[in-house]
Amino acid sequence: MRAPDSEAQELAQSLHEVVDTIRLCSVCLNLTQLDPCETCSDTRRERTLICVVSSPSDVVAIDRAGGFRGTFHVLHGLLSPLEGIGPDDLRITELVRRLKTDAAGESLVEEVIVATNASVEGEATAMYIARVLKPLGIEVTRIASGIPVGGELEYTDQATIARALAGRVKL
Fold first, then answer.
1. Is 16 helix (H, G, I), strand (E, B) or coil?
2. DSSP letter assigned to residue 148
3. Which of 48, 52, 97, 126 is the most buried (most CB within 10 A)?
4. Any residues with CB less than 8 A from the CB of 11 and at least 6 apart, and which?
5. What is the pLDDT of residues 78-124, one digit of tens each?
6. Would you call 74 helix, strand, or coil by DSSP?
7. What domains can you pick out in the chain, each with its CATH number?
């Protein structure tokens, strides 16, 4: 409120431009100026692998980490019955439709990685997606969770330690 009128006008113009230029990618439903988005247009991406995330910021985080060369699908939320958010409020129908891509009804996708948060809502969403996709015969996996790199066991909560032990891998 104390900013000069020119700054307020500049902010309003920027918000107006965002509304006019940003849309959802017709493939992955990420925010984009181009359709399809840069990720979906990248021919170097592995088309047999889709990582399902709850928000566009999760796409950025996973891409920034490197190592994942598949494609994405953005749900734009998580199941939360207490907040009135059910399956119809998420982009799960679009995911199922996307998995049925060729004329024979066979999917080109071999694996769907569910990368939702390790919260009650994230877990519920992951379990729901797994149940919906199981009849399609596509492998559904969940990202690992546990002790963060650099984390100290003595300061880690019991649930995280239990999950880390359950998800251990052979060396």
1. helix
2. P
3. 52
4. none
5. 999 999 999 999 999 999 999 976 545 566 899 999 999 989 999 99
6. strand
7. 43-166 (3.40.1360.10)
Angstrom distance (rounded) from CA 17 to CA 105: 40
Nearest CA to 74 out of 106, 111, 37 is that of 37
The letter for the amino acid at 18 is: V
- pLDDT in the model for residue 92: 97
Instruction: Give the CA distances from residue 147 to residues 54, 69, 120, 124, 167, in Å, rounded to whole numbers and listed in that order.
Output: 22, 24, 18, 21, 11
Kindly list the distances between the CA atom of residue 134 and the CA atoms of 47, 70, 95, 117, in Å, as whole numbers in the listed order: 19, 20, 13, 21
141 with 114: CB under 8 angstroms?
yes
Q: How far is CA 168 from CA 146, 157, 161, 162, 163, in A?
A: 9, 17, 11, 10, 9
Please report where in the chains the tokens 């598949």 appear, as a residue. 70
